[in-house]
Amino acid sequence: MTQYADLVITEAPVFTADAARSWTDAVAVRGDRIVALGAANVKELIGPRTLVIQARGGMVLPGFQDSHIHAPFAGRNRLHVDLSGLAGKQAYLDHIARYAAANPGKRWIIGGGWAMEYFPGGTPRKEDLDAIVPDRPVFLFNRDVHGAWVNSAALEIGGITKDTPDPVDGRIERDPQTGEPTGTLHEGAAYTFFERFVPPLSREQWEAAILNAQEHLHSLGITGWQDAWVTPETLAAYRSLDSSGRLTARVVGALWWDRHRGLEQITGFLDQREQGTARFRPTTVKIMTDGVLENHTGALLEPYCDGCGGHTDNRGLFYVDPEVLNAAVTELDRLGFQVHMHAIGDRAVRNALNAVQAAREANGGSDNRHHIAHIQLIQPEDIPRFRELGVIANCQAYWAQMEPQMEELTIPFLGRDRADLQYAFGDLLRSGATLAMGSDWPVTTANPLEEIEVAVTRIDPENRDNAPFLPEQALPLPVALTAFTAGSAYLNHDDDAGVIAIGKRADLVVLDRNLFDPAAGPIGDARVVCTIASGSVVYERP
Fold this sequence. Notes:
Elements: E1 7-15, E2 23-30, E3 33-37, H1 39-43, E4 51-54, E5 59-62, E6 64-69, H2 71-79, E7 81-82, H3 89-102, E8 109-114, H4 126-132, E9 138-142, E10 147-150, H5 152-157, E11 170-174, E12 181-187, H6 188-197, H7 203-219, E13 222-230, H8 232-243, E14 250-256, H9 266-273, E15 280-288, H10 322-334, E16 338-343, H11 346-363, E17 371-374, H12 383-389, E18 392-395, H13 404-414, H14 416-419, H15 425-431, E19 435-437, H16 448-457, H17 477-491, E20 508-511, E21 528-533, E22 536-540
Parallel strand pairs: 1-4, 6-13, 7-8, 8-9, 13-14, 14-15, 15-16, 16-17, 17-18, 18-19
Antiparallel strand pairs: 1-2, 2-3, 5-20, 9-10, 10-12, 11-12, 20-21, 21-22
Helix pairs in contact: 2-7, 7-8, 10-11, 16-17
């Protein structure tokens, strides 16, 4: 007696993302598994109750996996003040004013998503917020979550005045004439303020934020991700969602390394790792090693330029002493943790690679699949070390384009020679490094198709007439697609997914066009028709 399939997808090319980058033309699913490939084989499994998805004119891919994302925080913004889809100071202020007026009972106005490019020097001022919300504190993380915009009421609550010293891991932006804080907090100044003064969300509120994010991510074809900033609060929310059957994605949790503490915190990570569930595995530790280049906190080997052709004595901030980082990565590696390191500047990337090398020398080889995210600036001699050390290059490709923040806040302060080394994905590929891809949402769009377009073209999808940014570093389309599917699944230790093959978990996405068809239009304009996670349809385009 034939065991019919529960679901089949037919009449569309299927990109399997396997090692050979092979294709087929139909997929059959039973339960949560792929059970047949190819039209002839699939046809035999169609029964009276089989759901048949005819994807004529479209394309089938493995479900996307995002290797670096902040889903709870993105969801929180979407439920509060979300500025990420807006452009310009006035648009921000109008949105904030509307939200404040519609929520008079909110004791704090919180959210984020503003872009530095819309403010002189990348730093907004408190007076603009004071004019629309004078009576309540406002705290808004910027788009890259490395700074915050606050009003006078918030500064007063935090006790921040012209006499308040900068923290060692951050900076309070000040008026050059008066010394008064202007309303922008950088790095540790923002994080410490947020942790100390902004009221925490309840578990139920975090659950709502994650569910909101999950719904959005499923609509973009994403079936799994690595959460790059898991706190005890978001860990509890993920656990609750999975236990109640509401978590439909597969999530790896990267536990947050407190840079103000040392190796003693690892004991807590061991306890947290034991709290994993079927769909949520807190098996990774995230270490922030530096800041970002736009505010001159990314760690550089040589000092920043002054933007006018001269040099400074500022090499940025390295948040974890290299000896401590070596010891931490070595111990985490010994205990079987994966380490996820944020590294933007070339000094940060080198120190992160050195830390993995120290772990390899102490512990021998492992399958922990350590990775370095962002990797904006890498010195050429460090490129081959990714392959040599087995370090996965965790790429956020959407940034690899010429846009105002790059043009005005980055290149002038790097200088031309260093600017030409940015986002060297092509060099990493040619060196044999394993590539994975993620969005860093809400820092950029969560849409994998827009991110893949930038990886392939090195051009802003919103300004396609622009010249490509360092086009020699572009990736071929099959490579970019594989990085966002099989590559990220490999990074996540999700060996059951990432490719379309018999026996693999049925995480699939159906697009409205074939991305390889020259007549199909830009990659980022493609839309998801259907998303399937573990054999169940979790999104259908209305």
